[in-house]
Structure prediction request, 298 residues.
Amino acid sequence: MEPVRVKLVTRTGASPLGSWTYHEYRPTQLAGIVELVWYFDGPTVHRRKRVLPNGRVELLVNLGEPYRLITGAGRERLDAAWVGGMLSRPQVFAQPPHQRVLGVRLHPVGAYALLARPMRELSEQSVDLHDLVGRAAAELAGRCHEATTVEARFRLVTAWVSERIARGRGADESIVWVASRIDRSAGAASIAALRAETGLSRTRLVGAFREQLGVAPKLYARLVRFRRVLAMLQDGATPLADVALAAGYYDQPHMNAEFRALSGITPREFLAARHPVGDGSTTGEPRGDGRLRAARTQ
Prediction:
């Protein structure tokens, strides 16, 4: 069988500590399951990283030194591979001096199919992958270590996800439909109207959402809307009043209050600490001058 073609987006840059490289891949064969696969290799400018709620579940495979969870629930030392469940408040991690880490950003219904367990058990948690899938976690990490290129690692991890999903049971079609409508509306869809279209009772919809996504529908809609704000600010959108209206908030004070409730920081603090790559899901506390210079996009 011909290998799946991996179309990479690559960004390189430099900091006072040295050069870094970021790769990103969006596997079309896993659309609706995996949003993107990414890989970062470079010195750590922000020794502490704040991970913000974004309505997604993250699978990490670490090829370098361990990370340490400082603020949040879950395993304190994170070594080979772990999963970050759905968040509604930030987590803070201590990062190694040099990072070599691969991430798989999963739609929550994709994470449910991949891990075959109630997602509410992982909410607000960072959980060692071995505790979820057993020895398959060490096998995945070992194969990623042995791979000699980023493309090979991306093929390995997407094949691993595909194989596990093919053997598992997916989320209920009605729950997938409601979640997709919330996503497509950027969190603006009426939950009551969506529930009425499914024919589910409120209790059944909320229970199934918590089981299969990790949070209730209204909280998921809040996270999706907040995710849009993060992406807009990451891209440099201003002024903040315009961002608030574009994201569906009543006004800027409403957005500011929600931003602080979900992230623990203000929009302006986010702008000062955001990373040069990614969708805005993380910020850092600068070391040195904290500035990274994006050099090239391929």
